[in-house]
């Protein structure tokens, strides 16, 4: 028998079960904040200048249940 699994995003931002049900990998969870963070660090070479972008990426990762 063929089985199709449909993944739907959860509305809870604090649920750690959303990771297990959707199998989101840390590398794929927050592409926009990751891109902005990496670009800032690459261009400035100074993490302190990119602190707000780093914190925004951490907040996004936490919203998917990752402990960062």
From TrEMBL:
GO terms for cellular component: mitochondrial intermembrane space. GO terms for biological process: mitochondrial respiratory chain complex IV assembly. It holds the Pfam family COX17. Keywords: Chaperone, Copper, Disulfide bond, Metal-binding, Mitochondrion. It is found in: Mitochondrion intermembrane space. The keyword Translocase does not apply. Gene3D superfamilies: CytochromE C oxidase copper chaperone (1.10.287.1130). One of its GO terms (molecular function) is copper ion binding. Coiled coil: none annotated. The keyword Disulfide bond applies. Cu cation binds at residues 27-28. Belongs to the COX17 family. This is Cytochrome C oxidase copper chaperone-domain-containing protein.
């Amino acid at each position: 028998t063929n089985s199709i699994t449909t993944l739907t995003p959860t509305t809870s931002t604090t649920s750690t079960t959303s990771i297990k049900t959707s199998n989101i990998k840390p590398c794929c969870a927050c592409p926009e904040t990751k891109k902005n963070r990496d670009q800032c660090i690459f261009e400035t070479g100074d993490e302190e200048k990119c602190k707000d972008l780093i914190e925004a990426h951490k907040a996004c990762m936490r919203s998917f249940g990752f402990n960062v």
